[in-house]
Amino acid sequence: MPPDHDPSWSPPADTGEQPRQVRRILKLFRPYRGRLTVVGLLVGASSLVSVATPFLLKEILDVAIPQGRTGLLSLLALGMILSAVLTSVFGVLQTLISTTVGQRVMHDLRTAVYGRLQRMSLAFFTRTRTGEVQSRIANDIGGMQATVTSTATSLVSNFTSVVATVVAMIALDWRLTVVSLLLLPAFVWISRRVGNERKRITTQRQKQMAAMAATVTESLSVSGILLGRTMGRADSLTASFAEESERLVDLEVRSSMAGRWRMAVITIVMAPMPAVIYWTAGMALQLGGPDVPLGTIVAFVSLQPGLFRPAVSLLSTGVQIQSSLALFQRIFEYLDLPIDITERPDPVHLDRIKGEVRFEKVSFRYDDEGAPVLDGIDLTVPAGGSLAVVGPTGAGKSTLGYLVPRLYDVTGGRVTLDGVDVRDLDFDTLARAVGVVSQETYLFHASVADNLRFAKPDATDEELYAAARAAQIHDHIASLPDGYDTVVGERGHRFSGGEKQRLAIARTILRDPPVLILDEATSALDTRTEHAVQQAIDALSADRTTVTIAHRLSTVRDADQIVVLEAGQVAERGAHEDLLARDGRYAALVRKDSRPAPASGDPVPLEPTR
Asked: Global pTM?
């Protein structure tokens, strides 16, 4: 588990890890080998063309001008112009292809991370900050953009340029070449030092960016703003954000300045190198050494930028790669997260689903060392039947319901649908079979129609209206200025809690699943609206298997079977009247769930008489 989720997590040892990570990064580019080959050819051609220019210059100075050969002079000058044109064209083409490949790799990474997260169990998201997840996808992958889109081209281009330039220098004069190469070992040493420093800082910077993103996501959501304002903590939140931002400023400055002075020293040393070459050639002539033609010296000096600029660029690319390795490591942490809930290699597909649900000696715990949330649950809900699960907070009611659609997997026993273990069913069958209306109603920042069609993308307007009528929400939607085109706002905050619940119920009705899990589905409704929606749910549940989890007992008295959970075990089971007659735990819950009537002090049950 990555460090943001498990305090005991420690990074893997460096021994052998970095080469493996590099191989894994290179594997990302494997699908684009053809395009990268074209880029390599363009880079090689561009390097060769650019190296040809000093040789053309040498011929101009040593042959064409001294011998007055105007035709040769014109041809050589034209060659220099053509060399510049070809170099520019090759550069544009290689940038286009390499950028396209880089963006495709980033797309693949984003999609892979998002797909991985979609397959994670609900438990992962209950212990992970939303901002942290968003930061991995946005900041970390976004931070790799320059590296992924240009690094491969830069490496090939600069390496080819250095090799071609060194060969050209040796061809011109090997003694001057030795003088020019004396600085390269120092460049390599400095680059490695700077790269390691950048990698350490980048890791810290990305963690800080993730922390700041999480703070923004939580505090600037609608719920966060409401909480901050009503608690009078707006100034405190601003100050806290300022501290997070201040830490990021320090890390950004350190990242930008890491190795700058060392690289500046290299630049300063490089500046007098042309003068050193002229001085070396002159001294060699004065000391009786070989006479180096002027054209050779000028051509050699013109080649030096083609050696030092790519060499420095290679070193800078190496530094950038070291920084990006930290980002890749964070991304790979998510790609390597173990998936708790997976589909069998040969899953069972059901075309016709009756809807019988069984819990057979079901146990569940969130981790191996934790206490069991459910222990030895044996229940049967016949097809078309209804089960109500009640009990105190923390008894495991919602967890029991979430085992049916495999939001969690049992740790003991099994849950079956029509006699098939839900773990053996394919995801498509399970998604078609089980609909969930949760107490945590979630609506997208989109229109009412779009939110409803999330359950059935090809639903007609008439189907939307019918589902909304069944959920007792159609008249309200129709009364809005934009009707079903009304944008619900962030998390549906333009609608009341009861309206959001009814929209969620309408969305599930539209999906028309044979099994319904109603987890506090009417918890946000007033008594009158609750009664209306319960009528709609009763009509919807007539031929469907329904599991209702409830605190408010007004929704459960007509269930075929009522189960009272306590500490993860079945304490009582039976029909409403039978349980009341026993005067046990259920009866105690009913008495506790009573409230004074509006017109008198006599306590009355919350559940309406039907």
From this structure: 0.63
